């Protein structure tokens, strides 16, 4: 790189040839021409631009330094880098799932793209403004605020900061109750388009007869089959942290579907290459495509899980029975499926008692 060109592209950058013939690069600190910071890398280094700008701001960076060291200390960007570094360690220790880390990175990027250089105790009004600017995608906006709230909860617990500016920010997704539960007509429509023997048909059958999450569907296979008290069953530990082990009978429709596909592998569901899906996202994208092909553009795999919960409740299962199928550890999580049904049964029984009255 020509020294003259560098002076044009990088104000304050000085290049000197030492008696040994080696080129030395230094940068004048902006606002303090008397101060010059030697650069630790040459212009062909991938971190050169970052290190140059830091030097112009009066900060000397070493290459390959941690993100939190490269951020302005006490800034939102600095806090975000510390939080992500802590999450990475938690993933390595098996305390946090890789999927959680991936989602948190996406949330943090939204925050730091806009407010990286703000003081870490950012005014709540700025977070509200960030949320409102994403009003066209309300569910994502709420997810971003929840992720920021979790980051600050982590920070306040460790006394990195004293307040959580995301507390009290209301949700804007009046959502429609999350994923839409599938109806019997939806199930028939899908199966009419995707016939037995196809991966698409097997996927629907697996979701319906296990009520598993998509993070488990990419892993389930014959290795999870077992026999309990003479009954063929599936037993697995859900990926989602805090979930209880699931052990359920393997119903005939599911057994037939798992044996009907031409290609068999380590997992029930295989991609077009005959390999297990690499991530829940890749399976999710394919399942949405299968739904669109069947004319069900607004349906998802999680909606099948909800449908299974509602059907179990309608068939008289208690919330505790549904808990065992869904892997829930708290009754209130499964109560959403049984509450309306049980209230109706109570009302019906109560009215039956009135029926016998002599009026």
Report what the structure shows.
This protein has 359 residues and is mostly helical. The chain folds into 3 domains: 3-65, no CATH class; 76-157; 184-345, Intergrase catalytic core (hpI Integrase, Chain A, Orthogonal Bundle). It is 50% helix and 9% strand. It has a 3-stranded antiparallel beta sheet with strand order 1-2-3. The protein has a 3-stranded antiparallel beta sheet with strand order 4-5-6. A hairpin with a 2-residue loop joins strand 4 and strand 5 (231-236). Mean pLDDT is 81; it is low at 1-8 and 325-329.
- Runs in which pLDDT lies below 50 for 5 or more consecutive residues are 1-8, 325-329
CATH homologous superfamily of the largest domain, by name? Answer: Intergrase catalytic core
- Whole-number mean pLDDT: 81
Number of domains: 3
Q: Which fold name fills CATH's third level, the topology of the largest domain?
A: hpI Integrase, Chain A
Rg for CA atoms:
28 Å
Through-space gap between termini: 101 Å
Count the E strands: 6
CATH architecture of the largest domain: Orthogonal Bundle
Percent in strands: 5-15%
Query: Could you name the CATH class of the largest domain?
Result: Mainly Alpha
Helix coverage percent of residues? Answer: 40-55%
Strand order of the largest sheet: 1-2-3
Net shape: elongated
């Amino acid at each position: 790189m020509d020294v003259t060109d560098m002076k044009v592209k990088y104000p304050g950058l000085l290049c000197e040839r030492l008696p040994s013939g080696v080129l030395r690069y230094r940068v004048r600190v902006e606002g303090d021409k008397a101060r010059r910071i030697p650069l630790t890398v040459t212009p062909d280094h991938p971190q050169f631009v970052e290190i140059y700008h830091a030097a112009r701001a009066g900060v000397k960076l070493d290459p390959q330094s941690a993100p939190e060291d490269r951020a302005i200390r006490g800034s939102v960007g600095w806090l975000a880098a510390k939080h992500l570094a802590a999450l990475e360690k938690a993933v390595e220790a098996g305390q946090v799932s890789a999927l959680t880390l991936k989602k948190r990175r996406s949330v943090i990027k939204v925050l730091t793209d806009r407010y990286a250089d703000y003081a870490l105790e950012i005014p709540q009004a700025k977070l509200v403004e960030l949320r409102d600017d994403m009003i066209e995608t309300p569910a994502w906006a709420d997810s971003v605020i929840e992720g920021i709230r979790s980051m600050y909860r982590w920070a306040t617990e460790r006394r990195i900061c004293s307040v959580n500016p995301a507390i009290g920010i209301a949700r804007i997704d009046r959502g429609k109750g999350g994923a839409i539960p599938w109806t019997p007509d939806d199930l028939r429509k899908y199966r009419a388009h995707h016939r037995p023997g196809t991966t698409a048909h097997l996927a629907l059958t697996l979701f319906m007869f296990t009520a598993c999450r998509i993070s488990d569907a990419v892993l389930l296979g014959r290795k999870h089959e077992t026999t309990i008290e003479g009954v063929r069953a599936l037993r697995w530990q859900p990926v989602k942290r805090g979930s209880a082990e699931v052990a359920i009978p393997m119903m005939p429709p599911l057994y037939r579907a798992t044996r009907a596909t031409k290609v068999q592998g380590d997992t029930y569901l295989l991609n077009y290459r005959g390999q297990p899906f690499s991530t829940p996202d890749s399976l999710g994208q394919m399942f949405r495509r299968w739904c669109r092909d069947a004319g069900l553009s607004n349906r998802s795999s999680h909606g099948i899980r909800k449908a299974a919960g509602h059907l179990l409740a309608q068939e008289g299962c208690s919330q505790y029975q549904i808990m065992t199928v869904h892997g829930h550890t708290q009754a209130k999580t499964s109560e959403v499926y049984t509450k309306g049904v049980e209230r109706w049964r109570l009302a019906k029984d109560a009215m039956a008692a009135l029926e016998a009255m002599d009026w």
